[in-house]
Write a structure and sequence with these properties.
Bound molecules: (2R,3S,4R,5S)-2-(hydroxymethyl)piperidine-3,4,5-triol
Strand content: 25-35%
Structural class: alpha+beta
CATH architecture of the largest domain: Distorted Sandwich
Number of domains: 2
Number of strands: 38
CATH superfamily of the largest domain: alpha-galactosidase from lactobacil brevis
Distance between the termini: 62 Å
Largest sheet: 12 strands, antiparallel
Radius of gyration: 27 Å
CATH topology of the largest domain: Beta-galactosidase, Chain A, domain 5
Length: 763
Amino acid sequence: MASVSSVRSLREAGCGRTRQTRRWTDRGLTLLVSCILFGATAMSFAQASAIRYDAQSRIFRIDAADMSYVFGVNETGDLQSLYWGRKLAPGDSFPAAHSEPGWGSFDLPVNTTPHEYVGWGGGLYYAPDLKITFPDGNRDLVLHYVSHSIDGDTLRIEMKDISREVYVHLEYKVDEATGILRRSAVVENKTGQPFTIEEASSATWNLPAASDYELRYLTGRWGGEWGLQKEAMHPGRTVLESRRGSTGHQNNPWFAIERGDSGDQDHGNVWFGALGWSGSWQIAIEQMQSRQVRVTGGFNPFDFAYVLKAGESLQLPDFYGGYSADGIGGASRLLDRFELSAILPEAPQPRPRPVLYNSWEATGFNVDEAGQEALAEKAASIGVERFVMDDGWFGERDTDHAGLGDWWPNPQKFPHGLKPLIDKVHSLGMDFGLWVEPEMVNPDSKLYREHPDWVLNFPGRPRSELRNQLVLNLARPDVRAYIFGVLDKLLTDNDIAFLKWDYNRNWSEPGWPAVAPDEEKEVYVKYTENLYSILRELRARHPKVEIESCSGGGGRVDLGILRYTDEVWPSDNTDPFDRLSIQNGFTYAYTPGVMMAWVTDSPSWMNDRSTSLTYRFLVSMQGSLGIGANLNKWTPEDFATAKALVAQYKEVRETVQHGSLYRLISPLHGSEYSATESVSINKDQAVAFALLHSSQMSYPYPRLYLRGLDAGATYRFHMMDGQAAAGTPETASGDYWMNAGVQLDLRGDFQAAAFTLERTGAQ
Ligand code: DGJ
């Protein structure tokens, strides 16, 4: 098996509380595999399970949280979607699936019937899930249901081509708490001959015909990620994608579709999804001529080919989908909960992010033992818990022209290695983190001089440099072994608690000359599989080490990398005002619990904008707080301000990072204001951050109506920073804070305030 990664076996080792598997074939129940662990009977299993199959109608139904998902096997043998939305009553039933009639003489039923998973064959004009060219030139692939099994929270379905021994193993795993489904697929070649996969998606999600769908997605570029787009859907195709070899800043693999514009964050029907893949990817959102919507996601078919040899299988990425009846706000809260409880390496209970200091914006490449120790002392004095030395510590790294690939301490800057600095950081009560960029090499490095053949390249063609660096071809086993080896040694030789794993360019000339020409394009899969396997193995060997995914900011953030990394760096743009819209977009798809947010110097290097230290803190305190300023330039007043705010942050960080986020006022579209509120899961604490961009015409700051509180409980109001209007009660009910609200006294430009509500009892 070339590419079924061990992800699958790891998953299976920990999967399913129920150990009873029923296998059905298209002729009925032919096999009962029971490894009954908890003494459950077949009947009690059927009753307890969130996944049911009705043999008579051949319908599958998945229920969890507030969601039902229903599909059936139609008379042709296709898997046909029937319903995805708000949870239905247990007794509600559906008639058996019947394929839709085609349209005129131009569309066969394959274009009008909503398929769960469809091969390119017959007369399909929409994005297929799978497209194959066979050695004889035949390219027709028609997949039909063969059998299925239900194992607790997981449904597995086997599909097969109508004549060839091509199998697709679909998997649906449902998260009980959120109703989010993880769909994936494995393609298996039992034909006895190799064939070439030209397009491979993990799943298709279907929505019924409607003319009032609104689509949201995320766009950006380096320094300007997480732009939230919203547009009315119309027949045709919207493609979200990366062709860059990694996730990319330009689109993020996330979408949300709302039926009708409820005009309120927390009301309305929203379907959303996210792809767990950190290589080139594509999500095609198509409104068909019938106005049905289908969303297909997986490997990007651009420049793609994967030769699946006889007997081999190919694992496709996980594609997650969910439904919320509580609007886009509810959708993002479900995703947050799911990421924290089911995706992150420490799920279901990830540790809160420590307050960290990072040296990059203070010192650039100019790091050395004495300078870093001096910064560490200052960082410790304000309550920082983790000190991270960024770029510049290794090889001949004085600028970005040299050193990448040579992962040993620079002897001039660290004559005694990293130990003295690490010991100093520990003696100050902090743990130590280090920047690395393992997948890259500067031509000016020992590594490149020894192994020029290790980079992605087309022989005889230019090797385009970006930031003076080339991409190591991680698909090569020797490159994988080298990168794993140097990192394993670094973590074994040094007491390092945290790696900031950077990745500062995208691919060009993505050739892999060491393999047969028809296998070169497999680099798009094998590179990313090896990246995941290195991260997985490093974590297994160094279980205390946490990792941040950074790619020149937010260029590699997705649910694939988040299975192996504890946090991400959303953007290199640390201007606090820009950061408000960056953080806003980010949190539609990802939890604030992974969103690193640094307080840096003013004026910001990005926009030359000046803001107060308090403003910068109150922006960053809405995520996982870090400090990236040059502490050597701070005044005693700055240290006092920072120390007080860091202490306040620690009081609310569990709520900010792991609570429920409500967006009270959006920072987008030239808004004068923005405000967020986070509520702890038990609703005992809420914290709100209010930002004023620029006062106009002497209008007061909008009254803030809190959300998500326990209506009948009493909450004590506490101003963390800034001023509330005279007369704000000290205590009042949840109902009061949600309906009468809070009036803040905020005026001027780039002003900020924050307050908490603490439950004192029930009324
Ligand atoms: C890009 C990252 O996003 C920055 O934070 C910093 O680590 C630099 N790379 C270092 O080269």
